[in-house]
Amino acid sequence: MHMKIKAHAKINWSLDILNRRDDGYHEMDMLMQQVELHDEIMISPSRFTTLTVNGKTVSNAGKNLIIRAANALNEYTGEKKSARIDLNKRIPVRAGLGGGSADCAAVLIALNEFWKLKIPFAGLLKIGEKLGADVPYCMTGGLCRVRGIGEIVESVTGAPSANLVIHAVGSGLSTQAVFSDFDISGDGALHVDTKAVQEAIVSENYIQAQNVTGNALERAAVRMLPEIENEIRALKDMGALYYAMSGSGSAVYGVFESEKDAKSASEKIPNSFVTKTIKAEEA
Fold it and tell me: Does the structural domain 3-155 have CATH classification 3.90.78.10?
């Protein structure tokens, strides 16, 4: 038995940090949506659990979210099952596109079926919460408002299909480093009206969404990688209806009126690519 699955990237339409808790975690309020860009994962029978990424075996893979997901399932069930996992990585790393979390989420769901564990989805979500803040969202998919430290995921109906140009700026950013800079600088919350952003996105009024959105981590990311601000401005100048940084960066994206417009803009931005958000009925 072999199983081939997709792990979709995500973008943040908005991201606000409400406060920092005593345990060091941050209370978030975000609007996120999956995009067509995805990693491909192949799962096959094996005596031992192994991981390859783009054809190369990952040694000492215990810190990798995919292997941690497999180990967490075994810990949950008290069993010692194994699989060969081959990852074809397409989502840029250190970009705020949720690639690692998407891989982890996809493997949790797939191995539950592959190993015939029959863990209810609610149980898988609890496992995912312990692995990463974005994992519960990536398991749920679609357009969602996400709160708490990532564990409160509310699906939103009417998710649109938007034409995107995404550009992962530079060599990427460490999420931990961006959050640390945010804390040290005392940036604070933006007080984004997430509900208003949500309503504008669902109605595909991207210009209105631009007027009410915000990413609280953008200030920290720009301090660490000033090119981010330049690339956001470039997307605006090329006619993007909506332009923002995703997650903790370094990826920025723009929404364009048509796929033709998106392709035209992408041709002017080295190492960028065109994709679309996934509509509600496709999620």
Answer: no
What pLDDT was estimated at residue 23?
A: 85
Q: What is the pLDDT of residues 51-98, one digit of tens each?
A: 999 999 987 767 899 999 999 999 999 999 999 999 999 999 999 999
Tell me: pLDDT of 283 over 70.
no
Count CB atoms within 10 A of the CB of residue 96: 29
For residue 91, what are the contacts with CB-CB under 8 A and spacing of at least 6?
7, 9, 37, 38, 39, 97, 98, 99, 102
Cα gap 40→89, rounded to integer Å:
7
Which position among 10, 16, 39, 261 bears the catalytic label?
Answer: 10
* Element containing residue 254 per DSSP (H, E): strand 251-256
CA distance 238 to 258: 13
Under DSSP, the state recorded for 17 is E
The single residue of 29, 39, 103, 134 carrying the catalytic annotation is 134
For 174-217, give the DSSP string: -HHHHHHHHHHHT-------HHHHHHHHHTT-HHHHHHH--BTT
Which of 258, 252, 255 is closest to 272 using CA atoms? 252
163-282: which CATH architecture?
A: 2-Layer Sandwich (3.30)
- The greatest distance separating any two alpha carbons of the chain, rounded to the nearest whole angstrom, comes to 56
- Residue 10 falls in the annotated catalytic set: yes
Structural domain boundaries in the chain:
3-155, 163-282
Q: Where are the alpha helices (DSSP H) in the chain?
A: 65-77, 99-114, 121-131, 135-140, 175-185, 194-202, 206-212, 218-224, 227-237, 259-266
pLDDT at 274 over 50: yes
Tell me the whole-structure pTM to 2 decimals.
Answer: 0.94
Q: Which amino acid is present at 209?
A: A
Mean residue pLDDT of the chain comes to: 95
> Is 236 tagged catalytic?
no
